């Protein structure tokens, strides 16, 4: 009987950007993989703790519970079991069950067939008497199964852990593995390569899967007909669910005129690609649309569609949702349509910079559709591929290679990059490697020496990457239909794009007037970044040159100086490190020059509108406070962020959080208002204006 998977399973894209369909990318070390597939496959390796041996009088709720318990006990003790006899009565149904060791009894004597190709397979049965017999009783209308006989005496050797897992009873291919095997087989992967992929995905050594290569081969052969039937059912499910998704978009548009969506159909008039966004997202883009991260990490196994999300960064460093798309394939044509549609949603305004995965097809689409937009391939998308491509090839040299690659990524000079790249390729013998060739061909989009000065608004950081990952986990928790997935995206986007109310300290750490003035203008996120640069600038010295420019260098470092050009007529400052062009926050070198020139306030042009606090409803404490109070504020912020993340997973959670949080905050507010106002000196809070 054929069946269609009831779950919408999302996995990381594994198609290698090198273009070789037989080449794949694995993601190692991700202990919190968001896809349901990887969560399920890890469960099989979990062993139960020491078990109590079955005994006469032991009670089970059902015969299946008893069989499962005895099976777990058998595996822990080096053997497997099978169901032997059962007895049936008209009143009780099956009322006796016999479970025995897999080597119980003897093989029946069969007459050998004539012919030269008969294979005489030796039986493993040897008359073992280990067993567990059960009897059912009905007590107060409730059925219970009692152990009436038990023996753990075997007449054969028991197996070690690494042997017992290979017994046929335990060599089971679980549902998630079955879907993965069928997907890889359909893509043309040979059986031995499929086994290798599964081992890498699970992070286990070769030969440690709970099934053998021949089990995979037999499974694929037996399922060929079923696969064809399933494909027909899946195609029907995809068509029905994509139509449901389209209807959901139409209904949302009728209820909310600010909602936007678009789609394409194929030659059979069936939905091919579909994208959508929300009014709040479009409004947020007007302020924060200078830089966009286009995440194309995940693909649905069930629907065979790629999910893409356009995400920005707000003035507090948090991800902000702009829109999303589901694509049938990963061709340049599909990516081009997605980009055209997104820009249409955003009223024709293109971002200054777009950050993406390592994907030549997407790169070509960006060049075609967004010719004035700079593309950056983020390092957190590149490193998992580097970690997948080179460890096996380089072996013990991989750690050294990875260190050199990281150093190359951070180089400031393109000339230094080209020189050291060639040296690295020569040292590690990678001259003919297709992945090294690919990385080099895309170097102008990822190496710091080439992308320095592209505006990224502090997006390429570990903290931002983790925040995006948490946001996507909330979306991919909806493992059902596309319509339910659509609803989940709406919930997550609504929570992500709502104004966040925080109480956060902005403590002064220097005596510089520049710091005090900046605190009145910038959000805490931007202020903390500028404050750090101010503090570090104290370790730098500025030497004025004849042309009015400055060489700024660290007091301990001989090399690594930065050139700062100062134009007094326009109060313009430019640093060779290009930090301001990249993040919108002045660097330590430029600040050193402003301090030396006795500036008490930075020129207004160096406070970008995206980093100003006017658009945020926030409380700021302008005074120093004890450390324990500061810790309390940090703890409060952490709890709040965790609450919003956890509640975004389902609509039920979201509704419950909103309902209960409103009641609790109202209760707390009333209690605080009833408290005395003069028991201690009040803290001075200043409320920023709401935008």
TrEMBL record:
<feature type="domain" description="SWIM-type">
    <location>
        <begin position="563"/>
        <end position="598"/>
    </location>
</feature>
<dbReference type="InterPro" id="IPR006564">
    <property type="entry name" value="Znf_PMZ"/>
</dbReference>
<keyword id="KW-0539">Nucleus</keyword>
<dbReference type="GO" id="GO:0005634">
    <property type="term" value="C:nucleus"/>
</dbReference>
<dbReference type="Pfam" id="PF04434">
    <property type="entry name" value="SWIM"/>
</dbReference>
<comment type="similarity">
    <text>Belongs to the FHY3/FAR1 family.</text>
</comment>
<dbReference type="Pfam" id="PF03101">
    <property type="entry name" value="FAR1"/>
</dbReference>
<keyword id="KW-0479">Metal-binding</keyword>
<dbReference type="InterPro" id="IPR004330">
    <property type="entry name" value="FAR1_DNA_bnd_dom"/>
</dbReference>
<protein>
    <recommendedName>
        <fullName>Protein FAR1-RELATED SEQUENCE</fullName>
    </recommendedName>
</protein>
<keyword id="KW-0862">Zinc</keyword>
<dbReference type="GO" id="GO:0008270">
    <property type="term" value="F:zinc ion binding"/>
</dbReference>
<dbReference type="InterPro" id="IPR031052">
    <property type="entry name" value="FHY3/FAR1"/>
</dbReference>
<comment type="function">
    <text>Putative transcription activator involved in regulating light control of development.</text>
</comment>
<dbReference type="InterPro" id="IPR018289">
    <property type="entry name" value="MULE_transposase_dom"/>
</dbReference>
<dbReference type="Pfam" id="PF10551">
    <property type="entry name" value="MULE"/>
</dbReference>
<dbReference type="InterPro" id="IPR058778">
    <property type="entry name" value="HTH_FAR1-11-like"/>
</dbReference>
<dbReference type="Pfam" id="PF26175">
    <property type="entry name" value="HTH_FAR1"/>
</dbReference>
<dbReference type="GO" id="GO:0006355">
    <property type="term" value="P:regulation of DNA-templated transcription"/>
</dbReference>
<dbReference type="InterPro" id="IPR007527">
    <property type="entry name" value="Znf_SWIM"/>
</dbReference>
<keyword id="KW-0863">Zinc-finger</keyword>
